[in-house]
Specification:
This protein is α/β, with parallel strands linked by helices.
Amino acid sequence: MNYIVSGHGGRWETPTHEVWLPEHLSVNFFVNDGEIISNQAAWPIYNHLLAGDEKSVQGKIVRSVPSGEKAYNYSCWYYPELGRNSGVFKVGAGTTDNPIIDLSYYTSDNPLTLDAMFDLLPEPGVIYWVTCQSMS
């Protein structure tokens, strides 16, 4: 199963925490570390993935971290402007009615970290991080 992460996102400049991706999980990012993904860029990626069209977004990936490699322990949280589109969803779900993880429980003060997400995902797969990677 592959996953879409849609919401606010980023990491803290200090301390810098890194995580090792567990076996059979990888992450694809659509902007470089420290950058913001615009809504204009994110919506088409998100919509293709929600429809199950992973092929259309491959050329937009700027960085991939395979299992067994190290990545920053990015955080994500609810983005009110996205409403029901803010969450972690199955690629190909076609709807946001049943998120894998409901981000409405997470805020910038209490975010969901990438390493915590690993424990909440029901199956191995690819994580498409369709959120910012800005630093605070």
